[in-house]
């Protein structure tokens, strides 16, 4: 029972003045220390994220200019060049910007560069559409715009669909119904970091191992690169995995510096020599529809047309469906 007054263990009243002062001093002292520590840790994390954003932009620009033969852009490629590709001053000349400004751009120090100037840099570096888009994203992110935060937790929901909360919120009901409606086409939902969030009955038949994976292993890239069952299932797995790594870099560019994404990348680099090699190449590619082939242990050879869409209700996510190829009976054999 609370009495509104404090007493010591022997029943004697406490000195409210001393106790209050001690409590206030301790609280203020401890609170200040804790607050200072927390603030310092937050600042340190923010600094690490900023550094990662700047490094990613600089690494990408350097890798692209190193890939250009000076002769291809009308410049001499004499023996005095110490490094392959274009020099910074040559990129600046081709883009019509100062050497100082371009150097700042590679260092992540150019504040909010205009679209027109970035387009000029993209032309100078002869970037394709996917690389051009990636440059715009990296420059936007280095300026502090557009970071995405998300985390996922697994739960069971719906009939025939495995659903996962994103930041505590389940997938919109319309998306769950869409996955079910796409059956018998194997279909699934990916999160911003390619978390394997939800799948329909047909996808469960195609890759039943997903049901037994630990939540932290339910990531499409991790599955394709590191899970033995997926390595045996996907035909031309190396080509498919390499394409996925380039798409993953492009689609997660705004997330770089996010702790969960950085942990995933570090894990993939540790556990997959293929990922380490391809990731270090800094290549990017936009998503493109293609045929995906499987060697299924029960249904035999399967072929689907791989398509992906971004749901309007869940920006940053990807609804993937694998459609039947006209004249092919893969969906029937998978479901039988």
Tell me the layout of helices and strands:
Blueprint: H1 16-66, H2 88-95, H3 99-106, H4 115-124, H5 129-142, E1 152-154, E2 164-166, H6 173-182, E3 187-190, E4 196-199, H7 201-206, H8 220-226, H9 228-233, H10 237-251, H11 259-271, H12 273-280, E5 290-296, E6 300-309, E7 318-324, H13 330-335
Antiparallel strand pairs: 1-2, 3-4, 3-7, 5-6, 6-7
Helix pairs in contact: 1-5, 2-3, 2-4, 4-5, 10-12, 11-12
Question: Could you explain the architecture of this structure?
Answer:
The protein is built from 13 helices and 7 strands. It is elongated, with a radius of gyration of 27 Å. The longest helix has 51 residues, at 16-66. With 336 residues, it is α+β, with helices and mostly antiparallel strands. Helix 2 (88-95) packs across helix 3 (99-106), helix 2 (88-95) packs across helix 4 (115-124) and helix 11 (259-271) packs across helix 12 (273-280). Strands 4-3-7-6-5 form a 5-stranded antiparallel sheet. Strands 1-2 form a two-stranded antiparallel ribbon. It has 2 domains: 47-142, lambda repressor-like DNA-binding domains (434 Repressor (Amino-terminal Domain)), CATH 1.10.260.40; 152-335, 2-Layer Sandwich (Beta-Lactamase), CATH 3.30.450.180. Helix content is 48%, strand content 11%.
Keywords:
disordered N terminus; 13 helices; Beta-Lactamase; 2 domains; alpha+beta; 11% strand; 336 residues; elongated; 434 Repressor (Amino-terminal Domain); two-stranded antiparallel sheet; five-stranded antiparallel β-sheet
């Amino acid at each position: 029972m609370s009495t509104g007054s404090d007493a010591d263990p022997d029943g004697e009243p406490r000195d409210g003045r001393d106790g209050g002062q001690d409590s206030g001093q301790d609280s203020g002292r401890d609170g200040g220390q804790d607050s200072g520590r927390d603030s310092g840790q937050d600042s340190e994390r923010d600094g690490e994220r900023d550094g990662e954003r700047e490094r990613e932009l600089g690494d990408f620009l350097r890798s692209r200019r190193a890939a250009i033969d000076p002769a291809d852009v009308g410049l001499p490629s004499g023996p005095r060049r110490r490094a392959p590709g274009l020099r910074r001053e040559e990129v600046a000349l081709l883009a019509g910007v100062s050497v100082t400004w371009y150097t700042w751009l590679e260092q992540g120090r150019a504040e909010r560069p205009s679209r027109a100037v970035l387009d000029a840099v993209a032309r100078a570096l002869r970037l394709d559409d996917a690389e051009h888009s990636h440059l715009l994203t990296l420059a936007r992110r280095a300026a502090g715009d557009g970071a995405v935060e998300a985390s996922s937790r697994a739960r069971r929901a719906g009939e025939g669909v495995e659903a996962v909360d994103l930041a505590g919120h389940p997938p919109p009901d319309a998306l769950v119904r869409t996955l079910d409606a796409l059956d018998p086409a194997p279909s699934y939902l990916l999160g911003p970091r390619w978390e394997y969030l939800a799948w329909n009955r047909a996808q469960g038949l195609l890759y039943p191992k997903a049901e037994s994976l630990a939540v932290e292993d339910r990531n499409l890239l991790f599955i394709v690169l590191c899970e033995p069952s997926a390595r045996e299932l996907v035909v031309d797995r190396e080509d498919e995995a390499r394409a996925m790594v380039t798409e993953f870099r492009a689609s997660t560019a705004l997330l770089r510096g996010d702790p969960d994404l950085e942990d995933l990348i570090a894990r993939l680099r540790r556990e997959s020599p293929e990922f380490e090699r391809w990731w270090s190449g800094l290549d990017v590619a936009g998503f493109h529809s293609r045929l995906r082939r499987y060697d299924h242990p029960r249904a035999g050879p399967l072929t689907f047309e791989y398509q992906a869409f971004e749901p309007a209700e869940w920006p940053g996510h990807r609804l993937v469906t694998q459609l039947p190829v006209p004249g092919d009976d893969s969906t029937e054999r998978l479901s039988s």
